[in-house]
Amino acid sequence: DLTVALQPRTLDDLAVINALYRPGPIQAGYVTEYVARKSGKNPITYIHEAVKPVLQSTYGIFILQEQVMRLSQLLAGYTELQADELRKAIGRKVPELMAAEKDRFLKGCIAKGLVSSDAASKLFHEIEGCADYLFNRSHAYCYSLIGYITAWLKVNYPAEFWAALLSNNLKSDKTTTYVTAMKDEGVLLLPPDISN
Predict the structure, then answer these.
(1) pLDDT of 24 above 90
(2) Cα(178)–Cα(71) distance, integer angstroms
(3) Rounded to whole angstroms, how far apart are CA atoms 22 and 166?
(4) Which of the listed residues 11, 141, 142, 168 has the most CB atoms within 10 Å of its CB?
(5) Which residue has the higher pLDDT, 141 or 175?
(6) 180, exposed or middle or buried, with CB in 10 Å at 0-12, 13-18, 19+?
(7) What is the mean pLDDT of residues 49-76?
(8) Number of alpha carbons in the 13 Å side-chain half-sphere of residue 61
């Protein structure tokens, strides 16, 4: 389990778990690599030293959309609007848009001169491969905070947690699943009682 492997201690750690558990990072092998880098089993590497300021907090691995956008600004001279257009183009996977973005990215990298054309090509290939499934930072943090609060309530106030969950899902297909889980956790479910 990813949470057990990463041993989260902060909201930042939970946000990383949320962001990593997405199709792009999973397919790219980033989950295993992130765990190995964070634990010190694998070295932290960067395609180029110029990407270090943006990827250092995530051990050299793309995890968030904002990292792709920031790198396009830093290395290829994109404006904020152009960086957002890159993010959208990658998400849509339209070949014509991607070809135009690749051309703009490579030309921008060469013009800025921070990375070689070979490094720029490798970087764009890596971005292209995972960016369409990357989370944005605000979602990663919001979902993590909600998940943390929900878990805390479930552990510290189980009866109230299950009552709220059942009340909000009375007509759901999951009601039976919730009732079973509740019983498995030892929370007593009483039938309706007109005396109380």
Answers:
(1) no
(2) 44
(3) 28
(4) 141
(5) 141
(6) exposed
(7) 92
(8) 25
- Asked if residue 64 lies in contact with residue 19, where contact means CB atoms within 8 angstroms, the answer is yes
- For residues 140 and 16, is the Cβ–Cβ distance under 8 A? yes
Question: What is the distance of C-alpha 52 from the center of its chain?
Answer: 19
68-106 confidence digits (pLDDT tens): 999 999 999 999 999 999 888 887 777 788 889 999 999
Joined together, the tokens standing for residue 195 give: 């005396």
Dist. CA 165–CA 99, nearest whole Å: 47
64 DSSP β-pair partners: 135
pLDDT for res 132: 62
The residue assigned the tokens 């990072």 is: 25
Q: Which amino acid is at 116?
A: S
d(CA 121, CA 104): 11
- pTM (2 decimals)? 0.80
DSSP string covering 94-138:
-HHHHHHHHHHHHHHHHHHTSS-HHHHHHHHHHHHHHGGGPBPHH
Distance CA 126, CA 45 (A): 14
List 135's β-bridge partners, or say none: 64
CA–CA dist 134, 63 (Å, integer): 6
